Amino acid sequence: MGFRCGIVGLPNVGKSTLFNALTETQSAQAANYPFCTIEPNVGQVGVPDPRLDQLAEIAKSDKEIETQLGFVDIAGLVRGASQGEGLGNQFLANIREVDAIIHVLRCFEDDDIQHVENHVDPLADAETVETELLLADLESLEKRVPAAAKRATGGDKEAKITANVLGQSLELLREGKPARLTEPKDEEEARIFRQAQLLTAKPVLYVCNVEEDAAAEGNDFSARVFEMAKTQGANAVIVSAAIEAELIAMEPDERLIFLEEMGLSETGLTRIIRAGYDLLDLITFFTVGPKEARAWTAHRGAKAPEAAGEIHSDMQRGFIRSETIAFDDFVSLGGENAARDAGKLRQEGKDYVVKDGDVLHFKFNV
């Protein structure tokens, strides 16, 4: 299963520069004019996890493979996008295909970089994008909900469920609130709500793109964004896209020195990747052996067969059990054999809910 975060925002806020740094490529053309990015660029990024290094060292694995998170660089939205302005329909369709939104906001002044609204105001920028997403959802549901309600009067059970849950979303949108505040009452409503692929239902992370001098502590612009995020129950991180772009050209040792000089303990990209992972409510489990130590991704709450399916569909279909060792036990005892001898290797069945950090070995038969 792939998990993808779409990088959105107004033109010229640093989206493509950030994407280039995230993927350590120059595949996204970065230029100082609107609509530089028309087709979305897609990149897979390894999720940093020091636990993988520990497991590989203990197991003397030949190689390590990080779990991956996808990032999609989506062209800049402008006012009127929901009505097709600035190729808006195409851009909105690209957003619909991602699992979460990384909303980049310009939090720096620079006379050399054009702002599409001719002034820097990250809160106004955020409202512009959110409004366009909301209007697009509103237009969609104002057609779908009455149609579902009409079918429901004829005895269509699924149409009745659709009218109920999406009707709740429609009321929220009419009040100017995002569809993510919808509260499905059961799994069937949750399934229909997910299938609706509403733009404002997607979780959002605000990325404050600041000047280099503000990379450690932020600035007045980013402080306002953090306050806005707090009122929405959302998260925000501070990044200087300019610094991240410099870092990708450096050797690892040089990066550490540079970060220390800038007063930073880690890259902004690491914060974004970790926050994106949390935003999607994901966990990491591991498979460990002499050939490789590998991290895998699953939704929080996934049961063992679902986790097995992340490796291969045959494992899920023919799942028998999972041999399970908690990360702390694997590390403190010094590996699988010692954990087995100490009684810390557990045989778990189909109903076992995988925990973050579990080291798993799946038994299956197809």
What is this structure, in a nutshell?
Helices cover 42% and strands 19% of the residues. It has 14 helices and twelve strands.
What's the total helix number? 14
Helix-strand category? alpha/beta
Radius of gyration: 23 Å
Q: Helicity, in percent?
A: 40-55%
Major sheet: order of its strands? 2-4-1-5-6-7
Shape estimate: flat
Total number of beta strands? 12
Biggest sheet record: 6 strands, mixed
Mean pLDDT, nearest integer? 86
Unreliable sequence segments: 26-39
Alpha carbon gap, first and last residue: 21 Å
Order of helices and strands: EHEHEEHEHHHEHEHHHEEHHEHHEE
State which percent range the strand residues make up.
15-25%
What does this 3D model show about the protein?
This protein has 366 residues and is α/β, with parallel strands linked by helices. The protein contains 14 helices and twelve strands. The protein has helices at 15-23, 50-59, 88-96, 122-152, 157-174, 187-195, 220-232, 241-247, 252-261, 268-279, 304-311, 313-317, 327-333, 336-341; strands at residues 4-8, 41-46, 63-65, 68-73, 100-106, 204-209, 235-239, 282-288, 292-299, 319-325, 346-348, 359-364. Strands 2-4-1-5-6-7 form a six-stranded mixed β-sheet, sandwiched between helices. Strands 3-9-8 form a three-stranded mixed β-sheet, with helices on both faces. The protein has a three-stranded antiparallel β-sheet with strand order 11-10-12.
Topology of helices and strands:
Layout: E1 4-8, H1 15-23, E2 41-46, H2 50-59, E3 63-65, E4 68-73, H3 88-96, E5 100-106, H4 122-152, H5 157-174, H6 187-195, E6 204-209, H7 220-232, E7 235-239, H8 241-247, H9 252-261, H10 268-279, E8 282-288, E9 292-299, H11 304-311, H12 313-317, E10 319-325, H13 327-333, H14 336-341, E11 346-348, E12 359-364
Parallel strand pairs: 1-4, 1-5, 3-9, 5-6, 6-7
Antiparallel strand pairs: 2-4, 8-9, 10-11, 10-12
Helix pairs in contact: 1-8, 4-5, 5-6
